[in-house]
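quick one before i forget lol
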Amino acid sequence: MSTAEAMQRMRKLLEDQEFSPQDKIPPERILSTTLGCSRETTRKVLRLLEIEGLVWRHQGKGTFMGPPASNIERPIDRIIETASAQDLMDARLVYEPALAAAAAQYATQDDLSTLRELALATGTARDWREYERLDNAFHKAVARSSGNTLLAAIFSSLASVRGRSTWQRRHDAIFREARKREYATEQSKMHLAIVDAIEAGQSERAHQAMHAHLQAIRVLALSSG
């Protein structure tokens, strides 16, 4: 069974069970049996869902629904909630290239596998909602691969704004307007360039690749407002 198919089955399973935030979900062994896939595939799916913020894992205690309870309300979230699109994009241009550069030094093989899988998946998104989910997961995965938990936490707050209706409308316009230029395919190529640099352990190249990617997004985001 492919990771994508297992991911789809896992989402349906979690929806059907109607778990509430912070509910503990079944252990990997049971999930693997229920989904009909290997433990390795189940672990990969859980890792991807954790990157998306759908679940979180506590070492030694299990996997739970939603973000960690301690992360639900943070002062920086309230600041970000009122920030302009330009401020948010400028902040991303400061933080994310540095995260990509750090990831080039600290990313594990599991990190690299996840990054490449997400980078490829963004190129096949059927609509903007799927693209947004995959793109957000990719950038979160880069942050998690950096080895810097503080910067990763700050980025997580920046990324959370993508759920706002105003931001969604803006990105809906971007995807719709850019579709004729095969937006998802172009962005996927940029994602892969970032992954290639990280995998090669070239921090400066990773920094430049992420900066170029975000600058392209910034131009589209601010021109479609």
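fyi The longest strand covers residues 55-58.
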